[in-house]
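Batch job 17 of 40 flagged for manual review because the log was empty.
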Amino acid sequence: MCGITGANFAAESAIARANHACRHRGPDATGIFCDGHVTLGHQRLSIIDLSTAADQPMSYTHAGRTVHIVFNGEVYNFAEIRAELQQQGYRFSTHGDTEVILAAYLHYGEECFHRFEGMWALALYEAGSLLLSVDQFGKKPLYYHVD
């Protein structure tokens, strides 16, 4: 039941406060990514991969592309997708679903979401582009504001 926060501008102190406000959703770890254009925050509840390597925001690089994520939920079929991606040359340093989402996005693009079985809300950021996604039933909350 992690908590994800973010802004499409540099807002580290605001995201730190937002993370603190949703600490009850993920008391195991907190993290912030900011590159001056976007700020992503995460409060982690460790369930699948308990190691600190699986903390978020998480980044993944393959073939010169880097993508960042904050993610709440679970992709139930991540092990099968992970095996497919490993056959395509992707390498993994964690044992959970978050890193698989990142690799799947780099390999399949937005089509990756049609492959996932599960429930999620997430934000992916790559090279100035921010993508938000929820599962088809919207089981995990994702609220955004446009001003």
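Reviewer: the log was empty due to a logging misconfiguration, but the result itself is present. DSSP finds four helices and seven strands in the chain. Unflagging and moving on to job 18.
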